[in-house]
Amino acid sequence: MALAKCYDVCEKKSSDSLVQFVFEDHKLSLYSKGSFAYIQVHVDVTSDAVCDFTLKTAPILDFVKYIDAEELLLMFDTEKKSCMISSADKKSKIAFQSSSESMKDTADSTYEANFSLDDSFDFVNKLSSAAKFCSNNVQEHPLTAIHCEVKKNVFKIKSANGPVFFETSSAIKSEDSFEFYLHKKSSNILRSIFIESSITCSVNKNHFLVETNKCKLKIFIENSDKNSFPSQVTGWLDKKEDCSVKVSAHDLTKTLKYLGGLIDGAPIKITCKDNKLSLESNQANIAVKEILITEEQNGEATSDFNIKSFLDCVESFQSSWIKLHFIEMQADFYLCKLTSPNTVSLLCPVVS
C-alpha cells in the first residue's frame, strides 16, 4: 500500500518514478516526488538496520502485487549498490540496482493556516467537482487551478473556466485564514492515498500538507493575494433573478443524460413556464422534448445551454433538489445560477 501511494503521487504514468527507502529506528520511510506533489510514508519493520537507497517504483510495485505475500524480505548490498526483494520463504526473488538520488523534502515547514476535516470524503468529492470547471490552459481562461480559501471553520472552493463558475464549501475546525490555488489533479491523488475519514491539513506559501499518523502528502501550490478570485464573476451571484424553479436533481440528471445521448453536440433549450421545466433539442432529422414537473416556480425564462456543461453542473451538486435561477444579462441572454445548500454554480448560455 505504501508503494502504491508513492506511485499515485507520480500519477501512475511514469515508468521512471523513483522511491527512496530509508531504514532507521526500526522504521522504514518511503519518499517520492511527482510533478506537483511529494509524499512520505512510514512502514513498521522488524530490523534495526540503518541505510538508505533509491529504486524505481513501478517494477517493485508490480513484484509486490504479483507475489501477494504477507511479509517481504529486503536485502541491501552497500558495496554493490543493489537490493534484493523476496517473499519470506524466498521462493520469489527480484533484484534491483539502486541509486543514491535523494527524494527527501527540504521545503519550508512553517505554516500559515492549520485545520482538521472530519469528513475527508466529502471534501475530496467537492475538490473533484471543482476540478471539472478549471480551465485547460491560460489562453482559454486564466484560472487553471482550484481557488481555495481557509476561513474560520469553513473551507471555500471556487473554480471557473469561462462558461462555468462553481463554488462550494466544507466545514473545518480552524481559526486561521489563507488563500491559495490548488492543482486541479489534487483530488485524484488525495482520493487514492487517504482512506481515513478524518485528516489534518496545513498550508503555507509553498505547499498544501495533508497528514495522518503514517503518511504526509505535500501538494505544491500557487499562493494568492486576499480576494484574488475575479470579482466580476462573484458579483454576478448577487444579480436579481428573473425566474426561479426548484426541481429534482435526479430527474434533471436523468433527462439531461437521455437528451445528450440522442442529440450529439446540439444545445438544449430550457424553458420555465406554467410550473413546468421544458427541455428540448434538435439536430438534423431528430427533435426531442421532455417536460419536468417542478416543486416551485416564479417568473418565466428561455435560454439555450450546452448539455454536457449543464449536466456537469447538476452532477456536482450533492443534493436531492436543485434550484435554477435565471438572470437576464441582456435580451434573451440568461445566466443560469444553480443552487443548493453550500453550493452554487453559474452557467453561461450558448450564443446562437
Commentary on this structure:
Helices cover 19% and strands 44% of the residues. The protein starts with a helix and ends in a 5-residue tail after the last strand. The mean pLDDT is 89. With 352 residues, it is of the alpha+beta class. The protein contains seven helices and 25 strands. The chain is elongated and about 80 Å long.
Helix content: 10-25%
Structural class: alpha+beta
Per DSSP E runs of 2 or more residues, the count of β-strands stands at 25
CATH top level label of the largest domain: Alpha Beta
Give the CATH superfamily of the largest domain.
Answer: DNA Polymerase III, subunit A, domain 2
User: How many separate helices?
Assistant: 7
Give the low-pLDDT segments.
none
What radius of gyration results from the CA coordinates?
A: 25 Å
Main pleated sheet: 10 strands, antiparallel
Fold-level CATH name of the largest domain? DNA Polymerase III, Chain A, domain 2
Termini, distance in Å?
A: 52 Å
Strand content: 35-45%
Gross morphology is: elongated
Mean pLDDT: 89
User: Looking across the biggest beta sheet, what order are the strands in?
Assistant: 16-12-9-10-11-25-24-23-17-21
Give the name of the CATH architecture of the largest domain: Roll
Number of domains: 3
